[in-house]
Structure of Uroporphyrinogen-III synthase:
Amino acid sequence: MEKPVIAIMRPDMHLDSSVALLHSRGFDVIAAPMIELRDNHDGNFDGFVERVLACESDIVVFTSANGIAFMLQKIDDSERFVHALNRTSVVAIGSKTKRALETRGINVSLMPDSYSSKGIAEMLHGTDNKTVEVVRSTHGDPALITELRSSGDGVLVHETAVYKLVLPDDGRQQRMIEDALNGKIDAFAFTSAMTVHNFMTVARSMGAEVGIVDILCERVVAAIGDPTADVLFGYGVSVDVMPEKFTFKDMIDALQERVE
């Protein structure tokens, strides 16, 4: 019996470990990064650092493990900053982000049951008269900021984008589209809304967007969470698999159950 072939599109830094996990679960893998992470220093970052150091921030929210490294590399005295950060209530979006924070000596106070922006907003509902900082990428879900600002009376919300996501172009992206069109892929695993957009952008640049949508509608499609599923739906693609916890491992667990 042939092994099912799954397409994954995570950043290069996560590809090797992801491929190893999938091989251990009995999948063959076609891998191509559809996003690349790059540093970003926006106009809000210095104010964020100053407020944390001055003990003016009450809650600091981290929406990814990636954001932690990009944040700390921009700070001259990271040890002093971490000490100040530990005087706030630090929120991690999920277990991976929590581990990344704790590895760097940052204490995590809160983590939502649902590993998502919506889960964070629901967890912090009823927070009054607090200053909330959100550390994330340039492509973070805008609904999080809107919901946090309405989560309680007198809530002040600041956000800083410490990294950005760009579309890489090294040939692997086009080869994945070709493999999909040639029927070589059984399942597609999408790990972010941006990954979906970039996947479709590559297909469009090859004149193949309609064909790719048709292929996706015939194959098993997994989305890591609601925002990713919503974007897929916007392209006319229904989602077959979505995990209860929005992590890559949980998505693969759910996908494995579906294809077996």
